[in-house]
Amino acid sequence: MRSNNTTNPIDPSGFTLLEIVIAIFTFAVVLTTIYTSYTGTFRVVDETESQAEVYRMARIAMERMLEDLESLYIGRSEENPTSGEDTRHLFQFVGEDREIKGRGADNLRFISRAHINLSGQGQEPGTTLIGYYVKENDEGDDLVLYRSDRPMFEGAVPLEEETGGFVLCERLTSVNFTYYEENGEVRESWDSASDAFKGKMPKMVSISLEFVNSLDPEAPFKFMTNVALPIEQGYPW
Question: What does pTM read for this prediction?
């Protein structure tokens, strides 16, 4: 006699609660790993771009200052035939050792032939009074370095106040200029009109720029360069 008993396999109709919990936990781990890698990648990209911007600003600022200083101009004096005194200023080179909230914020002004004509009026190149000055950023704690350019053909006078000009670079923590005499002696300031330096120019100027490091505020990005000044006699202005 044929038996009618058959064995039917058990087909599960769904997942157990434990299986669901394990699946959710696994998915959360995978998602967290992907998110961490994703955000980490973008953080590295942002930091790299930020550092690249700092290097770009430093390069442009250094190149501009080097060209300005290498174009330093000294005019030949004109003598008054009656008194025998000079009627014109030979040159002007004034470096001031300053600070803003304990951070180096040096100023420097001098006469150069590196005039930048932004007027578009086709003016002839000539001597110009260039000034570098530092101010605190209105939107943060960093410092901003400005460059002013006042052509002598406009009847420019020595800069008594640091105004005008354009931003040379920002996101700075300090700006320092150091001056070297012919004998190698180091000076933190210089004034060609003073008794100590009257009729003298520094033989070399050292420029130091420090930029904000968002990753490590205690270790700012530092850039330095030296420029030997070309001391040559020129013609009267």
Answer: 0.72
Return the structure tokens found at 69. 């200083």
Question: How far is Cα 178 from Cα 89, in angstroms, rounded to an integer?
Answer: 24
CB 105 within 8 A of CB 82: no
- The beta strands (E) that lie in 59-212 are given as 93-96, 99-100, 103-104, 107-112, 128-136, 143-151, 166-180, 186-187, 190-191, 204-211
Whole-number Å distance between alpha carbons of 86 and 13: 108
With a CB cutoff of 8 Å and minimum separation 6, the contacts of 195 are: none
> Distances from the Cα of 140 to the Cαs of 12, 91, 173, 218, in angstroms?
65, 37, 11, 17
CA angle 225, 228, 232 (to 5 degrees): 150
- Grouping H, G, I as helix, E, B as strand and the rest as coil, residue 47 is helix
pLDDT digits (tens, 9 = 90+) for 49-63: 778 889 999 999 999
109: nearest Cα among 209, 212, 205, 234 = 205
The rounded Cα 86 to chain-centroid distance in angstroms is: 39
Amino acid identity for residue 13 in this structure = S
- CB within 8 A of 16, min separation 6: which ones? none
**What are the residue ranges of helices labelled H in the chain?**
17-70
Tokens read off for 32? 């967290």
The pLDDT value given to residue 37: 72
Q: Is the separation of the CB atoms in 93 and 113 below 8 Å?
A: no
Q: Which two tokens stand for residue 219?
A: 């270790």
Please tell me whether residue 26 adopts helix, strand or coil conformation.
helix
CA distance 74 to 232: 6
State both tokens at 79.
């003598």
